[in-house]
Amino acid sequence: MPCDMQEENGASTMADLSNIRNFCIIAHIDHGKSTLADRILQLTHTVDDRQFRDQMLDSMDLERERGITIKSHPVHMRYTARSGKTLELNLIDTPGHVDFAYEVSRSMAACEGAVLLVDAGQGVEAQTVANTYLAMDRGLTIIPVINKIDHPNADVDEAIRQIEEILALPRNEIIQVSAKTGIGVEALLEAIIERVPPPTDEPDQNPCRALIFDSKYDAFRGAVSYVRIIHGTFETGQRIRMLASGTLTDLKEIGIFSPLPLPVDSLTAGQVGYLVGTIKDPRDILIGDTVTHQQSVNVTALPGFKKISPMVFSGLYPIDTSDFERFRQNIEKLHLNDSSFTYHPENSVALGFGFRCGFLGLLHMEVIQERLRREFDMDIISTHPSVIYRITLKNGETKEIDNPVDLPDPTRIETICEPFIKATLICQNEHIGDMMRLIMERRGQVTHTESIDKRRVMLTASLPLNEVLTDFHDALKSVTHGYASMDYEYDGYRASDIVRMDILLNSEPVDAFSVLIHRERAESKGRQMCASLRDAIPPHQFAIPVQAAISKRIIARETIRPFRKDVTAKLYGGDVTRKRKLLDKQKEGKKRMKEFGQVNVPQKAFISVLKGGGT
Predict the structure, then answer these.
(1) Does 312-382 match 499-613 in CATH topology?
(2) Mean per-residue pLDDT of the chain
(3) Of 172, 333, 378, 545, which residue is the least packed, with the fewest Cβ within 10 Å?
């Protein structure tokens, strides 16, 4: 921690609004956001060289291992501009993957400006376009930046043309940098100071208000709120109220991120920091809530954020059923840190008590599961990912379900509608044929084709969301040799021939393996799941049929062969009827065992099938 920051501890940071700049960095995944944030931290001397490490703001091991940003990370910096004036810069580094777009939108609510990063070699990608529109909707000042200008594959002129034509941003506002070497980063900071407007405040017109844009759970301090102060001043010792939840608490600590938490006496309008009260229950803090003083009256809530609906659902269960209460507490803590993740209790005959969880995408689901395992030391199992289906019954009633167990009797159903997405895909010209074939294999349709430059084309396609849940992204990267990018948005519901496929073990359905699937895909999916279960379930004393069924019709079958004891081993001679008598007796016993015996399905069988063996 730099010395000047330590001297600041216990004292309020600058209150002059004209000296504050709040901005975020937005880009497609792997375009260099975290590297640029590293250079800015070094240039502003926020981090000592001996404390510095690459991906400084990516605090989770999972982020560093995967090389992606999962959580937004705020940081407070001091910078002396060329004019000699010292300013306060509040930077928020954001994720680039489409599954974490909610993190980006929340970060933008705490900023007045956005640095839009474009890779000089890759050019404008799908998520670049989506993030630009998001920033425009928020009314942020956008500073276009071309990164990796020193890369051997860099085509700066083409990147400038794409920014100008596709994003409609003036070429004379574009700044060229190399985040790796630091070239142009100082010029970028000067442009941020010059172009990004300072925050505004009208304390006489509005009571003290702050917006909660993020939060986390700390084992020692309880729930910690990340806030942007909109009006007024918040000081240690004050009693505050949260409008939506009605929670009251005393402020035990107020601070800024430098980049580690650094306590200060107060936060004033325009600043970004954190509040620590006496709140221990994560459910008492709501993302997007407005914080004000307890005595303030006639307080209008801040707009908050547009509610993001989960698109992918999966059941999560503790492997050891005795861990359910600890699992529930850990789910609540994780939800505090990631409000786009939703959950509600459910019960499975095979897996016991658990939660039906909603996610923004498949990567989001994988990250949440991995965080539960790493941060909370939970052994969990998940069911197949699914989406919300809209069902119209013959009596006119409409229902929405995400769990196959809740599907009404087929004789009562008039139509089943599934969600579709509008996907924007960018690929090389030579891969257009493979891309179109992949889209059609997933029951999709290409609606528009547009040439971006001499090498790349942008496809707009309509696809069922259920078809892109599992391995679509992997297949996309495979057929395009890693050069394609994809972004998508919700595109309404359409009627489809959706059926419920059950897996029967010894003629008994196992609810954890049930899936809702298009009729065309049911047979191949059923064969895969039956084959996986045949290999995963150990032999019993009797043969076990493993069947996939739609209603009463069996569409796939495998058999788990039984143990066979050599009951004739004790015979040393005699007539053949003695041997046949013993074999017939064994056969009758196995019939009775099959009729009354229970199939023991080990946890590894669930894990094998539900974690990919059946997909």
Answers:
(1) yes
(2) 81
(3) 172
